[in-house]
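Repro:
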Amino acid sequence: MLFNYEVAQSKVLTRLPESLHYTGEPTLWTQVTRPGMRLHSFLEGLIIGSDGRMYLTDVPHGRIFSISPDGTQWTEIIKYDGEPHGLAFHSDHEIVITDYRRGLLLLNLNSGTLTSLCSVFNTENFRGLSDLVTDQDGAIWFTDSGRSSLSDPTGRLFRYSPEGELRCVLDNIPYPNGVAISADGSSVLLAVTRCNAVWKLARKLPPFGQPMVGTYLQLSGGLGPDGVAVSVSGQLAVAHAQAGAVWLFDAVGQVQARVQTPGGMWTTSVRFSADGKTLYIVDAQTGSIFIHPVSNKDIAQ
């Protein structure tokens, strides 16, 4: 099937300053996921506060950065022994973190304290957490990818309720990664990196057992979808890992645009501005944040 869509180019907003480049020996995460390389950073998990300030993680080096809205000032707000991947706001001054080694954490921005929300399921450690999103009811949906793939489709999707109840929603996923909630709150959209697809399931879960799941989008090339985000109008952005691009889809999953990055192929994270008119894109290879104005014709009605 052929589609007509716009091919657009994003532009650089900001890059990780050289003064914040990691210069030590490669960590275990780097040795396993990028063998033979020396990484100054691996940026993930972009979120944007109500004041326009941006936050994102440096996975292998246990760092979380805060960036001014214009991108001119980067601040390392915490460095700890962990591998933070995804971020989501829990309140105006609290951020939930999916940490690959340490589970679900909570960072208080006022005090700088880091506490554990959840580190085990059925007395066993997680395989390795990846990304998360909070829904309209305050529940946290997060992915446990570990080293799962098509040869080991045992990655998991969890839901952590406001009351502290942890439920394993799915346990058969070939590397679950980014997760988002549809604009109307009815659906969960899940990036499944190692089968190059986005799955869809109802947010309202059955009383017991696993929900029905379908393939919502099927990509090709690159590695597969990484971060995903939904705008206020229902538009879906999908970061295509190792393809240097982001795909934009309308509210029913039809492709609207391919937004290419001006450098770097490790597209990891995407986020819309509050009004849905600007798309922010993270590239881990160059340590950059790119921006792309979403044209009126591309905004789902």
